[in-house]
Fold this protein.
Amino acid sequence: MPDSGVVGLLLELRKADVRVWTSSGRLHCRAASGEVDAALRERLDRNADLVVAYLEDMDAVESSTHYVTMRDGVRIAIDVFRPKRDGEVVGTPLPALWCHDRYHRSDIVDGIPRTKLDTRPWLREVLKQGYVIAAADSRGSGASTGSRNQEFSPEETRDAYEITEWLAAQDWCSGTVGMFGESYLGITQFLAAGMAPPSLKAVFPQVALFDLYSFLYPGGVLRHDFIRNWGTKVRALDTRLEAAPVGDDDHAVREAVAGHQDNADVFARALFLPFRDSCGPGDEGLPYERQSPSSAVEAVRDSPVAVYQLAGWHDIWVRDAFLWHANLNGPRKLIVGDWSHDGREGADLAGEHLRWFDYWLKGIDTGVMDEPPIRYYRRFAPPGEQWRTADQWPPPEVRAERMYFGAGDAEPQASVNDGSLTADAPSRLGGVDEFVVDYTASSGDATRWTNGYGGPFGYRPLTTNDAGALTYTTLPLEQAMEVTGHPIARIWVTSTYPDGDFFVYLQDVDPDGESHYVTEGVLRASHRALGTAPYENLGLPYFPSTEDGCRELPEEPVALTVDLHPICHVFNPGHRLRVTVTGCDRDNAQTPVHHPSPVVQIHRRGPYASHVDLPVFPTGQE
């Protein structure tokens, strides 16, 4: 599989007017000036094998671009890649795999098209094994015409049906179709499956959203940084002349981009919709009921389309992956690795896609359906024991272990209170811990949330953040403890202000005292009312978050139930578990700032015993 970095080198060579080609497996180059820059020559020589492999792969593909007209006249731009054998396009009809792309099916970079085969090199291996690969610009984006009044629109989903059937009808297609792609491109697969196009047999969505409101406003708290940055990104993609044209029709791209100027401002729209029952300007009906992928869950459940999901423990939508899995009835699989939204380190994407699509589109028994449906990674497990399979989620071996918030040292060291976390329930008298909300508190600027819009990922130790928070920490563990599933905290609170945001973190404190992020949850106190989810919710708390259902904090303690994102994490001997509570995550969520800062109390006594229920996989049970 060629290294995608080769494309950058070839682009530099093109800018330097250096021609590169292969002959009999050898690499040749010639500069228009007669002499190749020494630094470029050295890089080319160092990467010669990769460049040869890349160019030979390019010679093994026939590329074409098309406009396909939808029912309402919107023209969808589509790239099609067909494999060659011995210089000739494969004449036998093959299954087609395609993606419905929000972020451009291909771009022009320094005058050269940069396609899906360049940005996702693993697709070349899939293509070699006898598949047609296609990529389509969604309506109102890239080189496609039309405009977008919302994301995940019914019009866009109907397009997916028509594109699927257009592909199936081509003489180079066997009539069976699958879909691939991540993030937005994963969501569109679920929505397409809900339409049940006759030719769509299987999909492979990676890191895909389930409940839109619960993501934009988890617990009622706006993911301001994400939606602002993502909105800026897609606005730029929609309105700049970067998308590759269909053929040589640059004029059509300019016309399409001119039409995209009317696309909705997704950030402004999110600000108008702070409750599940909010309506924005011009809305007919409730946007979250129409727009959230979860609204299509019944249609997807009834669809015959087979689903293989990929997710990561530090993805923004890892909870969503388990919810999708729990709400489907048909053939389904789920793999969860130690990945973020953009990370796939160690994943055999070509291999897994081929096992899945060979089975469903070619009728080859690859064994993929003989395995347990869930495969997940155990973070910090011993080498060779990192991966485990399960038939259901959470695994039936998991048991909830309740850990109570307790008193700390008389002179706190690690935090405001330096409290304890113990299996012993507090006395009736117990106690109360309090802190002044610190509006500089943050889990960092390289989190799962920043990575969700293409930003950096890499949590720094949270020890400094803990210093201004309330923390509850166990004694050093004598033996390993594995947390697998959905931790749920129940904290009893009062405050000098009638509302507040409560961020709850589960952390791993190493023997040196550094505190490391494991997972988190958040709830705005006024959104604390619980309700019944309109879908299978794995027994997790569901917050209706309707405008008239929100309530201020009373003077007496009230319970806030906060579910943390699912995780599989092994806390090794000598490490400690920590639960940290803050009132702000400055870099990743929007919390109103009040003056003076509220004083918040967390109660840990008798009927107000704050605690966390940890899903523990018993030691020694595999």
Q: What stands out?
A: The chain has a mean pLDDT of 94.
